[in-house]
Design a protein that fits this description.
The strands form 4 sheets. The protein has a 6-stranded antiparallel β-sheet, with helices on both faces. The chain has a 5-stranded antiparallel β-sheet with strand order 8-14-13-12-11, covered by helices on one side. Helix content is 25%, strand content 30%. The protein has 2 domains: 181 residues, Alpha-D-Glucose-1,6-Bisphosphate, Chain A, domain 4 (2-Layer Sandwich); 101 residues, START domain (Alpha-D-Glucose-1,6-Bisphosphate, Chain A, domain 4), CATH 3.30.530.20. With 339 residues, the chain is of the alpha+beta class.
């Protein structure tokens, strides 16, 4: 779902936030070699761009060879990124397809040509999507006890109303990459094969107690860490519940059961009033989170909400599982709403 000023299309913050590895609010300079790689790749293969390129980065507490292996080994890619994958440097292929990829491509549609490959440093490939030939460049920079991974995805046509945001897809994917490399844990993954119309219903398993998860949902400082900005919570029926986005989102609490359930009204201009309900149940020592966003017409395309809420629920999962050191992937772009 999109920028802070239009969260229905991104439901996530558009801030560059310091992480456990002390990366600053202003993006650090990219090395000349990395900048040259990105520039040459984009100049050579760039299609007509109708939206801003996605720029996203995430620190991963692992050495660069380990991260590069997760990006380039087919079995590893299928663990955190795609339902099916086949990578061959010799054949110049970086193929992935199936229900966990936007547009749910077939094997033929999921064929991607490699543009460059520098072991433990970078790779780039063509991604045909939304009837356009887009380019993805991934670079790795070693840091003290970590690797800074950057993704630039260029050439994406603007998305249609109701269509999932690629910023949400990349944030969700890179959070899962980090979880896979660091802890061999993968969270929510969006299934693009089904009908995404009408109400949203999703479940996420969280390795933390229900009181811990509920605390994160009801505490402004915790909400600000994963998808709010200056959140306001008045913890009673009829109380204000606000993510601080300014142009829409949560309004007031409709139902509240300590440690188990939270429901609030939701409204954006040009949309009918809807209701968001979070339900928490004990599950094998952890918590099963169920989120329902109801009140949409049966024919309303809600792919953006499905993917956006999964991204947010996934952030909540890793926030409570990892603890105070967790920070979300950082976007270093001006406007995420179009893609």
């Amino acid at each position: 779902m999109v920028a802070v000023t239009s969260p229905k299309a991104t439901l996530t913050r558009d801030l560059v936030t310091p992480s456990a590895f002390s990366w600053p609010a202003i993006p650090r300079p990219i090395s000349p070699k990395t900048l040259l790689l990105i520039s040459l790749t984009h100049l050579r293969y760039k299609e007509k761009t109708v939206s801003e390129a996605i720029h996203i980065e995430v620190p991963i507490a692992a050495a660069t060879p380990q991260v590069f292996r997760a990006l380039t080994q087919s079995d590893e890619l299928m663990s955190w990124f795609a339902e099916q994958a086949r990578v061959s440097r010799t054949e110049g292929r970086y193929d992935f397809w199936g229900r966990l990829t936007p547009e749910s491509p077939t094997p033929e549609q999921g064929s991607h040509r490699l543009l460059s490959w520098e072991p433990d440093r970078s790779l780039a490939f063509i991604w045909p999507v939304r009837d356009a030939e887009t380019t993805v460049t991934i670079t790795l920079e070693p840091e003290e006890q970590a690797t800074l991974l950057r993704v630039v995805h260029e050439g994406l046509p603007s998305r249609k109303r109701g269509q999932a945001s690629f910023t949400d897809f990349w944030e969700l994917s890179l959070e899962n990459l980090r979880g896979w490399v660091e802890r061999r844990v993968v969270g929510a993954r969006c299934d693009f094969s089904g009908e995404m119309h009408g109400d949203v219903h999703l479940e996420v398993e969280i390795g933390a107690s229900s009181p811990t998860v509920f605390h994160a949902l009801m505490t402004p400082a915790e909400l600000d860490r994963f998808f709010a900005i200056k959140a306001v919570v008045e913890p009673h029926i009829g109380g204000r519940y606000d993510f601080g986005w300014g142009d829409g989102g949560p309004v007031k609490i409709l139902e509240l059961t300590q440690g188990a359930k939270l429901a609030y009204s939701w409204h954006f201009e040009n949309e009918p009033p809807t209701i968001v309900t979070w339900t928490l149940e004990n599950s094998g020592g952890g918590t099963r989170l169920t989120l329902v966003h109801s009140g949409f017409g049966r024919q309303t395309w809600t792919e953006e909400y499905h993917c956006g809420w999964l991204n947010c629920a996934n952030r909540l999962k890793f926030l409570v599982e990892v603890g105070p050191s967790w920070r979300p992937p950082a976007l270093t772009m001006r406007d995420r709403s179009e893609v």
